[in-house]
């Protein structure tokens, strides 16, 4: 009897020990997740959920102003009802074929008594995107800005970083601070400064042109020069930041490689293209990728400088998205533009990494 | 244990006896409520000045005026009304973008407001706050474009042209302006791609409209004539086309003498006075001269509308606030605080209309009230439509497109009407 009792006690002790060990392991495994949980809670609430909701909205016409039972009856609100903001009317919903204004027939959901149509065309916004000249124009503008600023901007940043690396350290420190200043300057300030510089009648750039007997340009009000002016401002604003990152990459390249190249009689260009550039590749991929993501979603700088004018020649996709959402109050269509932009950014970033990011040399 | 139970019962009894009991509703019982009113810059100034009067008449009601900068105001309104939380009780709406909000059902129709306010007491502004015959707001001031002109330079040219007063029709204006325009100096500034300026000062005087019988009407003969004239002023070398987005505030052009006249509401005198105090006495004002000689209106009037969001609480109290605003003695203060002449005619009795504006040297308020009958409340545009018209203006003035073709393109680009 005594033996069986002590055996049972032993089992109990063992079980408690195992339980404590499991809890301890569970706690050890959980601690990192607990530390990163605040970020993910915020990410889910303020980024993932809005992204998902936007994607959902993009398949509907959404009127956020409708409140159940409160919407006034003398406005045609069902055009925007969708599924999210359905008015709680007593009408039954039926699906029927309706003759539209242009003579085509369409299967729609209709409130039977009021005969108001709820649009059932799920992919309408995406179909309209492909036919929307203003969207296609904004895409062209965005791509032009992105390609030009990325290629030209990164090239200039590499040259600047190389020069900054070559000058004495004290001078390099001062120049680095000077070139980095735009990165820590407010976007609003930068846009206002460039607006003053580009001013047709009173701007410094035109006054400089006059000194060289050139005719002044309508920098921001001519479709021929407005986009160029925007690109100039963007390259200037991003040069310091990119060159600083590239410079850190340059300083990570082992000096012995340059010494060895020197011994082998390699020239400047050979050293640059055979040693510097290949070993700078990881940094360049980073700069290019972050630059692409930033430029594809460009909004504030363009809105402040030109607001998409003249005649949409500087209107980026993000600016058009804002116009559709907040100016025209077409929230569903704006959501579709946002989804399309996100997909474009994803594809281009992926291609960028796939083409340039692999086989990196270290 | 029993003692603790008795203590808890005693505490609970004490708390219950201290709790307020329901009392019958009485008109004399003050309502502890806050009425939130949104305004931008100058309208917020005025709302803050009249809030104490409403609070005094409604014990227990606190009027909370929230002020915004103009540039971000529309976005703030849309975000608040869309979210449905912390929705203000009364909002100020700009007619440039109020139309879309109204048509999307964000603003409450003011059914029965005519029983409390007499539309006949208003000049132009009452129609401003309507859509398809339904009233959605009450107006603030008369904001129709008048001509601010450099009278020290215009007056000799007017005399040389054989006229007694500032030109009152298109041909006389062109005749006078050619006398004072040259390569470096232009008689008038026209805003590039500015739907508002074109609509107010050109389309309406030509008898044109945005909508008629459920269709877009701005591509009519009147619209074509209005756009043709807009371009003609540029082509004849008397107008400077100014792109405010690209070039910024045109005040330097006015103070430098690059341009000698500008179209704006009467409130612009405060801008001139602030930016160019040294030019005191050099500026004159006159009604807009464009359009046929027998035109019914010389301009459309804009201004602000005060409205109630559909999602607002205390809508009855908000309506009381709107009615309070439009009491003559209250609305008269809009002139003293903001400088805008009220759209409410009965408020004019409380203004010293003979008071001479120190900067201009004329009784500006009196002139505005005399010119007001020659205006009509502007129709509320949709944003897509106004953008399409702005593009048409650009196409004609900068790209040489035919005005009719440009306006017809604008109609095609505008959203389908219900």
Key features of this structure:
heterodimer; A: 362 residues; mainly alpha; three-stranded antiparallel beta sheet; 13 helices; 3 strands; 5% strand; flat; B: 418 residues; alpha/beta; five-stranded mixed beta sheet; three-stranded mixed beta sheet; 18 helices; globular
What is this structure, in a nutshell?
With 362 residues, chain A is mainly α. Chain A contains 13 helices and 3 strands.
Structure description:
The complex is a heterodimer of chains A (362) and B (418). A three-stranded antiparallel sheet of chain A has the order 1-2-3, with no helix packed on it. Chain A contains 13 helices and three strands; from the N terminus they run H-E-E-E-H-H-H-H-H-H-H-H-H-H-H-H. About 8% of the residues of chain A have low confidence. With 362 residues, chain A is mainly alpha-helical. The N and C termini of chain A lie far apart (72 Å). Chain B contains 18 helices and 17 strands. In chain B, strand 10 and strand 11 form a beta hairpin. The radius of gyration of chain B is 26 Å and the shape is globular. The chains are: A mainly alpha (362), B alpha/beta (418). Chains A and B meet through helix 5 and helix 12 of A and helix 3, helix 4, helix 10 and helix 17 of B.
Number of helices of chain B: 18
Largest sheet of chain B: 5 strands, mixed
Oligomeric assembly: heterodimer
Structural class of chain B: alpha/beta
- Estimate the global geometry of chain A from the Cα principal axes: flat
Strand count of chain A: 3
The CA-CA distance between the termini of chain B, in Å, is 74 Å
Number of strands of chain B: 17
Q: Biggest sheet of chain B: strands side by side, in what order? A: 2-1-3-16-6
User: Please, what is the average pLDDT of chain B?
Assistant: 90
Q: Mean pLDDT of chain A, nearest integer? A: 84
Give the low-confidence spans of chain A.
68-90, 113-118
Rg value of chain B: 26 Å
Structural class of chain A: mainly alpha
């Amino acid at each position: 009897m005594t033996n069986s009792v002590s055996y049972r006690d032993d089992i109990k002790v063992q079980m408690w020990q195992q339980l404590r060990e499991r809890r301890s392991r569970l706690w050890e495994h959980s601690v990192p997740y607990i530390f990163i949980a605040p970020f993910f809670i915020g990410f889910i609430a303020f980024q993932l959920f809005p992204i998902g909701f936007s994607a959902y909205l993009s398949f509907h016409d959404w009127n956020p102003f409708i409140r159940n039972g409160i919407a006034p009856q003398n406005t045609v609100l069902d055009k925007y009802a969708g599924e999210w903001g359905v008015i709680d009317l007593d009408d039954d919903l039926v699906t029927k074929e309706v003759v539209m204004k242009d003579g085509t027939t369409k299967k729609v959901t209709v409130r039977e008594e009021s005969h108001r149509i709820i649009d059932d065309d799920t992919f309408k916004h995406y179909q309209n995107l492909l036919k929307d000249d203003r969207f296609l124009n904004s895409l062209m503008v965005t791509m032009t800005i992105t390609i030009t600023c990325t290629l030209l901007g990164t090239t200039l940043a590499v040259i600047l970083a190389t020069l900054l690396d070559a000058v004495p350290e004290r001078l390099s420190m001062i120049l680095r601070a000077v070139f980095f200043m735009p990165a820590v300057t407010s976007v609003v300030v930068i846009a206002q400064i460039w607006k003053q510089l580009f001013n047709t009648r009173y701007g410094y750039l035109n006054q400089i042109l006059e000194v060289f007997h050139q005719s002044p340009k309508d920098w921001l009000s001519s479709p021929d020069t407005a986009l160029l002016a925007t690109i100039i401002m963007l390259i200037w604003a991003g040069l310091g930041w990119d060159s600083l990152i590239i410079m850190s990459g340059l300083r990570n390249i082992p000096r012995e490689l340059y010494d060895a190249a020197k011994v082998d009689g390699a020239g400047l260009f050979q050293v640059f293209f055979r040693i510097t550039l290949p070993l700078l590749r990881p940094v360049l991929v980073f700069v290019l990728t972050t630059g692409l993501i930033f430029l594809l979603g460009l909004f504030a700088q363009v809105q402040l400088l030109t607001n998409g004018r003249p005649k949409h020649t500087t209107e980026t996709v993000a600016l058009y998205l804002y116009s559709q959402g907040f100016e025209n109050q077409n929230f569903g269509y704006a959501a579709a533009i946002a989804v399309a932009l996100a997909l474009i950014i994803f594809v281009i970033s992926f291609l960028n990494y796939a083409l340039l990011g692999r086989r990196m040399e270290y | 244990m029993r003692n603790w139970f008795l203590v808890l019962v005693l505490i609970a009894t004490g708390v219950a006896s201290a709790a307020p009991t329901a009392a019958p509703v009485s008109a004399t019982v003050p309502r502890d409520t806050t009425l939130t009113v949104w305004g931008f810059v100058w309208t917020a100034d005025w709302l803050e000045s009249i809030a104490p009067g409403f609070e005094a008449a409604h014990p227990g009601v606190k009027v909370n005026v929230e002020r915004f900068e103009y540039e971000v105001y529309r976005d703030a309104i849309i975000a608040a009304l869309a979210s449905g939380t912390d929705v203000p009780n009364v909002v100020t709406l700009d007619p440039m973008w109020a139309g879309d909000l109204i048509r999307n059902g964000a603003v409450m129709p003011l059914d029965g407001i005519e029983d409390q306010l007499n539309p006949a007491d208003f000049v132009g502004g009452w129609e401003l706050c309507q859509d398809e015959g339904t009233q959605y707001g009450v107006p603030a001031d008369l904001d129709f474009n008048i001509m601010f002109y450099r009278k020290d330079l215009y007056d000799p040219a007017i005399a040389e042209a054989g006229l007694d007063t500032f030109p009152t029709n298109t041909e006389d204006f062109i005749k006078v302006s050619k006398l004072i325009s040259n390569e470096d100096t232009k008689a008038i500034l026209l805003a590039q791609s500015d739907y508002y300026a074109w609509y107010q000062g050109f389309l309406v005087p030509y008898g044109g409209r945005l909508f008629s019988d459920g269709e877009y009407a701005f591509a009519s003969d009147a619209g074509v004539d209005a756009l043709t004239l807009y371009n003609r002023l540029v082509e004849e070398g008397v107008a400077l086309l100014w792109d405010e987005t690209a070039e910024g505030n045109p005040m330097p052009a006015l103070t430098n003498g690059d341009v000698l006249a500008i179209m704006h509401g009467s409130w612009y005198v405060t801008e001139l006075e602030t930016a160019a105090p040294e030019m005191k006495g050099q500026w004159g004002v006159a009604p807009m001269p464009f359009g046929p000689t027998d035109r019914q209106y010389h301009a459309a009037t804009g201004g602000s509308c005060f409205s109630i969001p559909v999602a607002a609480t205390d809508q009855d109290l908000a309506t009381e606030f709107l009615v309070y605003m439009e009491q003559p003695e209250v609305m008269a203060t809009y002139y003293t605080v903001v400088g805008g002449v009220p759209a409410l005619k009965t408020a004019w009795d409380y203004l010293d209309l003979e008071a001479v504006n120190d900067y201009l040297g004329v009784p500006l308020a009196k002139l505005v009230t005399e010119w007001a009958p020659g205006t009509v409340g502007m129709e509320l545009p949709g944003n897509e439509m106004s953008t399409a018209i702005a593009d048409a203006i650009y196409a004609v003035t900068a790209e040489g497109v035919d005005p009719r073709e440009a306006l017809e393109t604008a109609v095609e680009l505008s959203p389908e009407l219900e």
